[in-house]
Amino acid sequence: MWKEHYRIGSDLVDSQHKELFDRVGSFIKAVQDEGAWEERLEQVQATLEFMKEYVVIHFRDEEALQAEIGYPGLEKHAAIHAAFREEIRAFAQRVEQEGFDEEKVQEFAARVMTWLIMHVGKEDQKIGVFIRSQGGQS
Amino acid sequence: MRVEYINPFYKATIDVFRIMLNLDVQRGQVRAVDELVPVSEANVVIGVTGDLKGSLLYSFPKEMALEMVTIMAGMPMTKLDAFVSSALAEVANIISGNAVTLLSQNSFTCQISPPQVFVGTDGALSMATEQAIVVPLITSIGTFEVSISLHGSPR
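^ Those are the sequences you sent over. The predicted structure of the assembly is below.
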């Protein structure tokens, strides 16, 4: 899922993005694999748990980078992060309470995949443009 | 139904397809119809409210739908299941959201409703009693259609 052109020019953020794409890829694979749902569930649960924690770390680090370089879109970007963090938290809470229904998890996986592609492919690229306009790597 | 409503959808589709799928999009010959009819297997309907009211129908051929999600997920997709349908719904939702943002720059303030997906070509939706314009959008992995039925006036 990861593409080299997603790089924005910050080694930390780029490596975190790559990790996120890799994890979402594993999540989709677990969700879409053949075989009994119960057998794939463990991987699905583990990935969801990881994602819940990792987006907090990644969003925090990426916002710190934006603050450090004086990125003018920080406030708007942080609001987008907050909304998505809440979406993941709400989904995790829902499946904890209601159980891991296969169709619901498939829908969620699709949401996370499209969000990640669009966010890193569009919003985060604006940070890359800003970094380059300031003369290179952070 | 005015032609000026169409361009924002075309522009938004070009942008979203380039970012999400790395694909170019060309516009085919538009035509007017009297109702929203799904021509292909994978369909997403989105309602619009506000200064402009109406419905949008995105109709994707099955093979194209599977290929789109294959590109995004980086792994082969073989059936129109909940994952593939939801991914298509998200793509249609993002295009519509971006198009509505573009329309707002022309003094139309609109909101969109959550996408609804249905698979199959049975029957007309009979959602649009007023005229709709169908825009074929051509890519290297297939052609899909967006039917736009929007009516109203700017503030």
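Residues 15 and 103 of chain B are 15 Å apart (CA to CA). Chain B has three helices and eight strands.

Shout if you want it in another format.
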